[in-house]
Amino acid sequence: MKLCRYLHQHQIRIGLVGERGRLRDLSGAGLKNLTQLLEDQNPLHQLRSLASESLDELHIGDVRVLAPVEKQEVWAVGVTYLRSKTARMEESDFSASAYDKVYDAPRPELFFKSMPEKVVGLGDKVGIRRDAKWNVPEPELALVLNSRGEIVGYTIGNDMSSRDIEGENLLYLPQAKIYDRSCALGPYIEIAASEEEARSWKIEIQISRGEGNVVFCGDTSIGRIKRTFRELAEYLFRSQTFPHGAVLLTGTGVVPGDDFTLQPGDVIRIDVDGIGSLENSVVIV
Ligand code: DO4
Ligand code: MG
Questions:
Q1: N or C: which terminus of the chain carries fewer CB neighbours within 10 A?
Q2: Model-wide pTM > 0.70
Q3: Strands across the sheet containing 202-209
Q4: Which of the listed residues 161, 177, 232 should we mutate to test ligand 1's pocket, taking the one with most ligand atoms within 8 A of CB?
Q5: H or E element, residue 249
Q6: Which ligand 1 atom minimizes the distance to the CA of 102?
Q7: CA angle 185, 61, 248 (to 5 degrees)
Q8: DSSP letters along 7-42, please?
Q9: Which tens digit of pLDDT belongs to each residue from 123-180?
């Protein structure tokens, strides 16, 4: 079941997305925010019960879809796919052994990505830094976790990154990863899927330039992520509380060739089988 956070008639509402863009307004059944549902002891049961009520119906094309995040911090894990490890070892002489080691180490790489209010949603612009020369999107599955560290759902994430800054020195990672418009999430949260099902999904990316020329496309299977989702969530919640829950990006497995960099105006589209499509155009920040 797909949940959506959207703006309609100047109000933020929560809706259930159905076939052919059908959107049912859950606010009418008393659901005022996402967190209320994510924190429920049995979100799926709660959602089914809300969905059985008679609800106003809209079309997704008539509303503004917002990033599916409220007060949740966004974190990310890195080097969870072999492709990510090799790409990073190639971009950096200086830090190559760090990437090599973390791929096999028991403790994963975890880093802070974004405050919720800085996340951009479907149709918003994502940023490339004005002081970076080599910029890429990172298409990633994102885990939606409640305050108990339970995986309640999945959404799509784009971990925008500056590879030249990251490659110059590992200590520059926060500057390569955290800046205005560097994190996109959306469009929906898929609530019902198990980890096994999510691991069977494909994640695809397409980057278009100018009159729709495709300048890069690629895909991978979510099942290639080296670590289990439970393990990733468990490390995030070790010695740290998230009173409103958190969103955790699970790493990228699709990296364009070394001669590719994003340009302003490029359109990035990320598709995940079980969730939908997240599309954003690029702007310099
Ligand atoms: O250490 C660099 C970041 C890794 C990352 O973001 C990824 O693998 O997706
Ligand atoms: Mg990443």
A1: C
A2: yes
A3: 125-128, 276-284, 267-272, 202-209, 213-221
A4: 161
A5: strand 246-249
A6: 1
A7: 10
A8: EETTEEEEEEE-GGGEEEEGGGGT---HHHHHTSSS
A9: 999 999 999 999 999 999 999 999 999 999 999 999 999 999 999 999 999 999 999 9
